[in-house]
Design brief:
The chain is of the alpha+beta class and 724 residues long. Helix content is 21%, strand content 30%. Helix 5 packs parallel to helix 6. The longest helix has 23 residues, at 607-629. The two termini are 39 Å apart. It binds alpha-D-galactopyranose. Alpha-D-galactopyranose binds at residues 331, 361-362, 406, 473, 475, 521, 523-524, 540, 543.
Length: 724
């Protein structure tokens, strides 16, 4: 709901459980009045009389503008009295840098705004667009606020337009800014590395600016484009918290500033390091969307709101609730060393186990016998696949499997026909030796002709074969961020233009092949973000498939992404990344908490292991729907506890699935009680594996006792409502 109050002139935006209020103050500045629990229209009188004005010091004219420094602003400005980090920095053609954005007009429109070229919320109830103007630089900023009545996610972004005659340069152009009162929050970040993506890091927010960012060209394994502010009493299911995530996959920054007036400014968008964007007269820059979320039901409430929003409104509707393929991927089974004949036993076995899709990973193209050559040549490696891909696809078809194929569209090896023919398509014409991470260079995706070329060559393969699934990989961070085709004074646009090129290709490929299911990947989960979810209904969560490490990686990822976007596979032991051995049942249980699959040579399994995999695939069938539509409740935290446990509950609370793992056994250790918080207190439930019936009330408060497990063992419970 979006409401403009006639008397106070305040704006009130309300979703399912939150309200967001602001008004235009005496400086003409758009000032925040409230972001948090729901309030009523009638409360705006109180806000205007007792919250808004007292915050504006009754300053004389000389000091008036300095008041901006202590006011909660909706878009911070520079060199006009607001000394916190600015949200945008605008340079005029004479070199002067200052701005002060004041209210001009607003309008309310039905639905979600189109954001051309960028991933965005596809549907919503209403959007409020407020135009602010900086007279000094002739810049107009439109702030969009998109509201869904049944959601706790509020989507914001900014569009910056040059409405003057001279060019202007944006030195920074963030998407949003929110100032919250009463510091004293904990700051939650998702941080990590390759094979350890999205570890949960929570620390008290100290004074000054805490910034997370990626300057790597993609959202990165190091910092996910998400932060949360937690009030001190916030736990998994209780207390207040705020989430801020970018619907963006490129270099980003999110900055949290606790100032000396006890307020906290959160803002973010495209990374401003080495960024600049020239706007000629009449041009506009569209900043990516940010999804803000308020929860009074702790982090669990925040996660469920984000999960609903992403699968309901960001993932393509065709795939959002579409049954996920159960894949077997040959990467860890064969790496580069395969022929069609070597793949057949895997395909044959997959069919026997009930797996429905075979994915041929890296190595099927060009002269790709190792990671030193072939990238960019999207033609069949006949040496390995004599008879072409068709041989493998036919085998899949004969066995009733669909076929998936790996690409890494953004890359080129110097040892490739593409590089020999078009060396200029690659980055690194800078006169320095390029960084050759994984022996490969990046293609210049800021160039439309390069994107066109890759679109044509990838499309040709998809068109000529029966391909149901594409795994789009991206295996190195950006260096030598320079495009030979951009003018010298526009090189600051490189990073954002790169990701716009990636989005352009993703949009074109997914539109040209609407029946192909696209999975995202970047050295595991280094591009796992809401922007990627717009094109890729699921993303490979991590190259680390160890069922201990995965409890942490999947826990962290689940804080702001739905389980249905998380691709989770069972792999061989000892695990290729950690060397650890864990029971196959545990690997299956942890991999069942998302889009499940296998990443090993099925033909090498013992009969008992094959039987276990078959059981897992069948069991996944029972809960597949829950993974697409259910609500997640996290019960035992692998970062702090000796156990991991989560439950997924259907929206109508009639069925639930609980999975747990114990890391280390303690003889005669404590009996761990698991309050099954996701159940409905008013219903009665049956826990199949325990043969136990109890009220939801008892299962929520008394809980259920975790089975006595040895190191690395797991359990799974299926729970259903008992109707009287
Ligand atoms: C990345 C991916 C893996 C695999 C390899 C192939 O590391 O994360 O799943 O596809 O590339 O080179």
């Amino acid at each position: 709901m979006i409401y403009r109050d006639k008397k106070t002139q305040a704006f009130l935006l309300s979703g399912k459980n939150y309200s967001y209020a602001m008004y235009v103050n005496r400086l003409g500045m758009l000032q925040n009045l409230h972001y948090g629990a729901k309030i009523e229209k009638a409360d705006l009188d109180y806000l205007a009389a007792h919250i808004a004005d007292p915050q504006v010091p009754q300053a004389d004219d000389i000091n008036r503008d300095m008041a901006a420094d202590v006011l909660p602003s909706e878009y911070g400005y520079y060199a006009r009295g607001d000394y916190r980090e600015p949200t945008a920095i605008v340079e005029r053609s004479d070199g002067a840098v200052m701005s002060q954005f004041t209210y001009v007009s607003h309008k309310v429109q039905k639905g979600a705004p189109a954001v051309p070229g960028l991933p965005h919320m596809r549907s919503a109830d209403e959007t409020l667009s407020i135009v602010l103007r900086d007279a000094f630089s002739d810049t107009e900023i439109t702030l969009h606020y998109t509201v869904c009545d049944d959601s706790d996610v509020l989507v914001r972004n900014a569009e910056i337009a040059n409405v003057g005659k001279q060019p202007i340069v944006l030195q920074k152009a963030f998407s949003f800014c929110v100032d919250l009162p009463n510091a004293g929050y904990d700051l939650l970040r998702l941080t990590g590395n390759w094979a350890a993506e999205r570890s949960v890091d929570v620390a008290p927010l100290g004074k000054g600016i805490t910034r997370i960012q990626s300057l790597r060209g993609i959202s990165s394994a190091q910092f996910n484009p998400f932060v949360a502010l937690l009030k001190k009493a916030c736990t998994e299911e209780q207390g207040e918290c705020y989430g801020f995530q970018l619907v963006y996959s490129g270099s980003f920054a999110l900055s949290v500033e606790a100032d000396t007036h006890q307020s906290v400014r959160v803002q973010g968008g495209v990374a401003d390091t080495a960024f600049s964007w020239t706007l000629d007269s009449g041009e506009r820059f569209v900043a990516p969307q940010a999804a803000l979320c308020y929860s009074a039901q702790g982090l669990g409430g925040l996660s469920r709101a984000y999960a609903d929003c992403i699968r309901e409104r960001i993932v393509h509707p065709k795939w959002a609730y579409h049954k996920r393929p159960i894949v077997v991927n040959n990467w860890e089974a064969t790496y580069f060393d395969f022929t069609a004949e070597k793949l057949f036993p895997i395909i044959d076995e997959a069919a026997k186990l009930g797996i429905d899709t075979f994915v041929l990973d890296d190595g099927w193209f060009g002269k790709r016998d190792s990671d030193r050559s072939g990238l960019g040549d999207w033609t069949i490696n006949e040496k390995k696949l004599n008879g072409g891909l068709h041989t493998v696809i036919d085998r899949c078809k004969q066995r009733g499997l669909r076929f998936g194929l790996w690409f890494e569209p953004e890359m080129v090896n110097e040892d490739s026909d593409l590089f020999r023919k078009h060396p200029d398509y690659a980055l690194a014409k800078t006169g320095v030796e390029p960084c050759r991470s994984r022996f490969q260079l990046l293609l210049d995706f800021t160039r439309a002709d390069v994107v066109d070329y890759i679109f044509a060559s990838v499309s040709k393969v998809i068109k000529e074969h029966d391909i149901a699934y594409v795994k789009w990989d991206m295996n190195r961070y950006l260096t030598e961020c320079y495009s030979a085709k951009l003018p010298a004074d526009r090189q600051g646009e490189f990073m954002h233009r790169y990701i716009l090129g990636v989005y352009d290709l993703a949009e074109r490929l997914t539109s040209a092949f609407p029946d192909v299911f696209f999975e995202g990947c970047a050295s595991g989960g280094a591009r796992f973000d809401a922007g990627a979810a717009y094109y890729f209904p699921q993303t490979w969560t991590s190259d680390n498939t160890d069922a201990y490490d995965r409890t942490k990686i999947q826990w962290g990822t689940s804080l702001c992404y739905p389980l249905s976007t998380m691709s989770c596979h069972v792999s061989a032991c000892p695990n290729h990344q950690t060397g650890r051995t864990l029971p196959l049942a545990t690997r299956g249980a942890i991999a069942s908490l998302g889009a499940t699959g296998y990443e090993l040579d099925l033909s090498k399994l013992t009969d008992a292991e094959k039987a276990e995999c078959k059981r897992q695939v069948e069991a996944y069938g029972r809960i597949a729907d829950l993974m697409l539509t259910g609500d997640l409740y996290r019960l035992r935290n692998p970062f702090t506890d000796n156990e991991f446990c989560v439950m997924v509950v259907s929206k109508d609370k009639s069925t639930a699935y609980v999975v747990g793992e114990r890391f280390r056994t303690t003889p005669r250790g404590p009996a761990i009680r698991l309050p099954l918080t996701g159940l409905d207190a008013a219903k009665t439930y049956y826990i199949e594996e325990l043969d136990a019936t109890a009220s939801g009330k008892a299962l929520r408060s008394v809980g259920a006792t975790m089975p006595d497990l040895h190191d690395g063992e797991s359990f799974a419970w299926h729970i259903r409502e008992v109707k009287h």
